[in-house]
Amino acid sequence: MSAEWIEGSARDLLLLCDHASNAVPADIDLGIAPALLDLHIGVDIGAAPVTRSLAAALDAPAILATVSRLVIDLHREPDHPGLIPRHSDGHAIPGNETADRAARIARFHAPYHRLLRHQIRARRPRLILSIHSFTPRLEQGGEDRPWEVGVLYNRDTRAARPAVAFLRDSGLVTGDNAPYSGRLLNATLNRHAEANGIPSVAIEIRNDLIREPAGVARWTRILADLAKNLRNSLA
């Protein structure tokens, strides 16, 4: 199974974490050093603990991926060239050179998105929050990323605009569609939120801020307050 479902009584909110895990099934050999799976190329560092903690704080349901983005990137469309990455931030992933694309989609990508579709249809949340993290600096030709948090979105700005304002008013260095644009990298929310007319936003936290429990606790409080603010603004 490529997803974990966390039950919650709140029906107006759904949390997602596409890059929650660095797990690789035993029958898949990526041909890389295991230590690479602990880097940002293998998992959104800190995103899963924040999502779990936030779900508990808000009594909200959450869906978390259970497979590494190096096996298949669940936050990409099935026809995206980076769906099964052969290189990531300068690291070759030789085991993906001959991967059976259709088989991996059927095994991981399709079930994950079926679960999202089913839960969204069943609950019809008024707000979807997707939790991610980003590295302070890419290994290959990267510049320092000064933002503490980024707010990513595509065409629907109903949740994004108040989210940016809330975070900036809270004194946080906030990227508006930064460190990369949600107009380019917003596959899951495009498919399950925007296509269904549901306000949504992707929150990207710089991963050095959520590597430790204290940081997770701090960002849980920040995002819990943000979620409450957005619920009020969208009511």
UniProtKB/TrEMBL annotation:
Show the InterPro entries listed in the entry: N-FG_amidohydro, UCP029730
* The keyword Hydrolase belongs to this UniProt entry's keyword annotation: yes
**Per UniProt, which keywords does this protein have?**
Hydrolase
Keyword check for Hydrolase, yes or no.
Answer: yes
Classify the source by domain of life. Answer: Bacteria
- GO MF terms held by the record: hydrolase activity
Protein name according to UniProt? N-formylglutamate amidohydrolase
Origin species, per record, is Sphingomonas hengshuiensis
Taxonomic lineage: Bacteria, Pseudomonadati, Pseudomonadota, Alphaproteobacteria, Sphingomonadales
